[in-house]
């Protein structure tokens, strides 16, 4: 694993503190709940948020507000972050506990999905939305983040490539899901998501929740899976073909993968994110599968959140060095079967697009 310097998260807090001058604010207040996108606080603090949490950044000090019954977890998880941890007596109404720390604050930058009823309690303070500015900072990954993400993605791909589907013929999708969960539990790895669709269910979706459907010997299967390692997410989708389905579908799947990697080869720093929709269509055509193109869910940014910006194909941003994102378009075949291949790519320091883990 990449070595994380002792002052790594201190520098992140300082990045946020610089926004006080840039945005002419007296303080910043950032909210996140558990497993919530955008995961601004997981990025800033270097650990998953396990409850409703506010980070208050002032000119000379910073405070982390968390329900008091999670204080022990907070002291352990955020020990390397230069913040004072404050326990609140409530989870759903935390602003009253924060207001004493906002004395003499006239202008407050805010970000995150804080409940509306909480924001109303700040009505006497001038609020400035700085969320997009913070997102622009945290969606550009540095070398340490890339190494942490590579570890997560490498594990995920290795696990998925070795998955013994033939062994589970006759098992329900939900039973297979439980076996995967047990395997991850033994390694103390949180699962970010686990979707299994097999047989006729692949005509409806490639990312459905595991069902009571029993795996059959000639089924196509789609597995959309990811874990969380060192706060960073993986998100990979593979299709598998048992028995006679291999002859029926694998050639289309190879073409789908070829179109995705050809698209990645054409991307670079400065490419408009909206242009990726057009490029994908062109590469589908080059693989003679343009009539199977599905123009939705093309990909997304990824990092300390499962779904971050940019939203591939439908975003006004341009790609930057350090962006990490998925490409995951589907192909809908003549018989209605949906295929999906999803992989994670990044823009390297030279501005070229590369797959994160081959």
TrEMBL record:
Domain Peptidase M24: 147-348
Gene3D superfamilies: Creatinase/methionine aminopeptidase superfamily, Creatinase/prolidase N-terminal domain
Pfam annotation, one family: Creatinase_N
Family annotation (InterPro entries): Creatin/AminoP/Spt16_N (IPR029149), Creatinase/aminopeptidase-like (IPR036005), Creatinase_N (IPR000587), Pept_M24 (IPR000994), Peptidase_M24B (IPR050659)
Residue ranges annotated for the Creatinase N-terminal domain, each copy included: 12-134
Tree of life domain: Bacteria
PANTHER family: AMINOPEPTIDASE (PTHR46112), XAA-PRO AMINOPEPTIDASE P-RELATED (PTHR46112:SF2)
Organism of this sequence: Candidatus Kerfeldbacteria bacterium RIFCSPHIGHO2_12_FULL_48_17
The protein's name in its UniProt record: Peptidase M24 domain-containing protein
